[in-house]
Amino acid sequence: MPDSWTIAIVSDIHYASPAEQARRGYEERAIHRLWLRMAVKAYRRYIWLRDPLAHNHLLDRFLDAAGTPDEVVANGDYSCDSGFVGVSDDAAFASAKTCLDKLRQRFPGRVNAVFGDHELGKMSLFGGQGGLRLASWHRAVSELNLPSFWRRTLGRFELMGVVSSLLALPVFDPEILPDEAVAWQTIRARHMAEIGEAFAGLPADRRIILFCHDPTALPFLLELEPVRQKLSQIELTMIGHLHTGLIFRLSRMLTGLPTLRFLGNSARRMSTALNQARCWRQFNVRLCPSLAGSELLKDGGYCTITLPADPEAGAGLRFHPLPR
């Protein structure tokens, strides 16, 4: 047995294929109100990301910098989802496939890929376009080879990857097509059963490293009795989705915020997540930011986790800044 194992974690790559790059300005075009469109443009320019389609080179920088980890976890969001319907859109599919192919070619047999929300589709910010599409689920599973649930054992550590959008499906209900609702519920029930079975069979001496793209899903994991029973065995939970430590810190400050139902779907979805965020502490949540980070702080990068073979030692998490 080795003295330790190293896991490299990369999240929110948001690769843009040529077809997605041709859609520059897609988010603004989805917003009909001029004042709101201008506000979102300013938010993008100075705080979030000035050009969400211009960061393909950061994936290559990560591939050069990551070295030779024992395992690699890609924690979701491989495309820019410029059609807002996930990888059922050919342009977004091309982005995700190129991204995953690059990872798998660089780290053969070592890439563990997690679903992000943009693989399945998500309504545009304030524009109300798009949403989850069943075709995106099937295409991601069959053509991108994204597993619904995966598990790896490294010594006394169990690595597990879950699908946050499935777990948090009740939050996404307004974004689901009515004739797809039953199928989504069936897929979610199967996923919940997979997770429950894995936690139920876990020996008491094992430590869990959980990978969950969107922390909105974490309160729904607590619906499972085996998860509640094994909470003390969760060493840490790696999330993505928030892109920057700035948003992560702000989310912690706003824990318990009432759900906002009068400012549109995006505000309802985000405030619902914050309202239930008290449980994040129970999961020992840590953020792997996006490769690009935020426009304001330029704080992107990737993470590594060192897992010691020594049963008395804990996992070591390290953030690696990645200059743009």
Describe it for me?
The structure is a single chain. By secondary structure, this protein is of the alpha/beta class. Helices cover 36% and strands 17% of the residues. The protein contains 14 helices and ten strands. The chain has a five-stranded mixed beta sheet with strand order 3-2-1-9-10, with helices on one face. The protein has a five-stranded mixed beta sheet with strand order 4-5-6-7-8, with no helix packed on it. Strand 2 (71-74), helix 5 (90-106) and strand 3 (111-113) form a beta-alpha-beta unit. The longest helix is centred in the middle third of the chain and has 20 residues, at 181-200. The N and C termini lie far apart (38 Å).
Q: If helices are DSSP runs of H or I spanning 4 or more residues, what is the number of helices?
A: 14
Strand order of the largest sheet: 3-2-1-9-10
Annotated CATH topology: Purple Acid Phosphatase, chain A, domain 2
Radius of gyration: 19 Å
Write down the overall mean pLDDT: 92
Strand content: 15-25%
| Helix residue percentage | 25-40%
Order of helices and strands: EHHHHEHEHHEEHHHEHHEHHEEE
Q: CATH class, anyone? A: Alpha Beta
How many domains would you count in the coordinates?
1
The low-pLDDT segments are none
Name of the CATH architecture: 4-Layer Sandwich
Please count the beta strands (DSSP E, at least 2 residues each). Answer: 10
Quick one: overall form?
A: globular
Main sheet overview:
5 strands, mixed
Q: What class do helices, strands and sheet pairing give?
A: alpha/beta
Task: Give the N-terminus to C-terminus distance in angstroms.
Answer: 38 Å
